[in-house]
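The protein record minuted underneath.
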Amino acid sequence: MAQFTRIEVAQIMKESGMVPLFFNSDAEVAKKVLKACYDGGARLMEFTNRGDFALEVFTELTKYAIKELPGMIMGVGSVTDAGAASAYMLNGANFVVTPVLREDIAIVCNRRKVLWSPGCGSLTEIAKAEEMGAEIVKLFPGSTYGPDFVKGVLAPQPWTSIMPTGGVSPTKENLKGWFDAGVTCVGMGSQLMAKHADGSFDYVKIEQQTRDALEIIKTLRR
């Protein structure tokens, strides 16, 4: 069961401005990545549902967060059906992010008052998602649409909260483009999750890049 209500999660998304996301099939590696992001100041994590036994890893990761990382809000991404959404919520997911807009996912999340953020690619999809109760919509893939799309959406719908994922990097230039356009927060994956030459995660760099990105976002909002 979720520890945080959808309103609480939405508020922290807006306040922090960034949701790190990643997947790894090794629970111990995943814990180290999560700890690096936490130490860098992140208080949200989207663990993407992209591999076999991902639910098992997520469950272990969430238990670790509850015990060792107070205030860390665990959520799941890349969810494509209501069954998966329900399974993750029963294992502690506080928010559900999807690459597509699906009513069945909206229903099961709303029933449990868990925040869901559907992937949308048009003003019509965004409006439909909001009609179904979405607090924050995911713009995906962000690299395809860009900040100008966000500006276009907010012109007729200034109440819309948008989180682009894909095409977001922890640089001032990139983040400035998105936040100047009016995004509520950004989802950041591969550009944040630094790796060594051998492909292993660079935990020190992940922590530093997380800290730097959050500080840039804070500065941009002043």
Notes: The longest strand covers residues 18-22.
